[in-house]
Amino acid sequence: MAARGEHGRSLHNGLMGTPAAPGLPVRDIHPPGRFSAVRLSDLWAYRELLFFLAQRDVKVRYKQAFIGVAWAVLQPVFMMAIFAVFLGKLAKVPSEGLPYTVFAFAGLIPWLFFANGVGSASDSLVTNSNLISKVYFPRLVIPLASVSAWLPDMAIALVVLVGVMAVYGLAPAATVVYLPVFALLAILSALAVSVWLSALNVAYRDIHYAAPFFIQIGLFLTPVTYPATLVGSRVLRSLFALNPMSGAVEGFRWSLTGAGHAPWALAGGSFAVAGIVLVLGLLYFRRVEQFFADVI
């Protein structure tokens, strides 16, 4: 034990160029194994770093912006207005008995959280390359922080939606107690995709260009501007359920307004798909994590 201690202090002296104080413990940091499991205790130990990175992303996003956090309101409001004119008024898309503005707004809130979270998290490891190459911490903290940084925007937009509903004489339904379940599904879906894209983007920079393209396509493959009941074919409904955000959007809208039928079957499939994608993504992330500092 004494020999190991002396060796550790000698190694410390060689690396840092300064003598280590006698009697201080020496800790060896090893990279995680390629197939080792992700430990929640590691993430919990670095929870303050996660909060700091998420807070930094929020501040940077609105720094020197003329209207500041009002962008969290304007983005869904403008998109709601466009959809209401072209799809609600002109195309007469059904809205399950709701005013189309409320219908579209309720679907846009979880979708914009997903789209913005995945879009920023896919580049998060590359944009934090200096931090990764200099300091040790669980790299998973970075994409987690990038997704978490969009939670305040979702909360602000939710408050605005309640105000829009009040204009139409509507109030949140009793089913609003289930809202956290579907918000959790949206968060889980965003994390599942973000873990994959952030790790892949380190080795393949095509992800930077491909991610926004597929997110745009995903808007039309998710029942944001139309109800899921509009998909009549059973085969198409089965494929529809493979998109985890389908259950999140439908459930988010139902829990707030009570319109339509409870989408528990769709949500169950979405939870299963999101869980599988997340677990596989975590395994892949852990496998390549030790090479990030060399490749990035």
Account of the protein in words:
With 296 residues, the protein is mostly helical. Helices cover 69% and strands 0% of the residues. The chain is built from 15 helices and no strands. Helix 3 packs across helix 8 (141-148), helix 5 runs antiparallel to helix 9 (151-167) and helix 5 (100-122) runs antiparallel to helix 11. The longest helix has 25 residues, at 179-203. The radius of gyration is 23 Å and the shape is globular. The model is unreliable at 1-20 (pLDDT under 50).
Notable traits:
296 residues, 69% helix, globular
Question: Which helices and strands, and how do they pair?
Answer:
Blueprint: H1 2-16, H2 40-45, H3 47-62, H4 71-90, H5 100-122, H6 124-127, H7 129-134, H8 141-148, H9 151-167, H10 179-203, H11 207-220, H12 234-240, H13 244-257, H14 264-288, H15 292-295
Helix pairs in contact: 3-8, 4-5, 5-8, 5-9, 5-10, 5-11, 5-13, 8-10, 10-13, 10-14, 13-14
Explain briefly what this protein structure is:
The protein has 296 residues and is mainly α. Helix content is 69%, strand content 0%. It is globular, with a radius of gyration of 23 Å.
The gyration radius over C-alpha positions equals: 23 Å
Please write the string of helix (H) and strand (E) elements: HHHHHHHHHHHHHHH
Catalogue the unreliable spans: 1-20
Q: Tell me the number of helical segments per DSSP (H or I, 4 or more residues long).
A: 15
Taken from the alpha-carbon principal axes, the silhouette is: globular
Biggest sheet record: none
Rounded mean pLDDT is 85
Task: State the share of residues found in helices, binned by percent.
Answer: 55-70%
How far from one another are the termini? 37 Å
The quaternary state of the protein chains shown equals single chain
The total beta strand count reads 0
| Beta fraction | under 5%
Structural class: mainly alpha
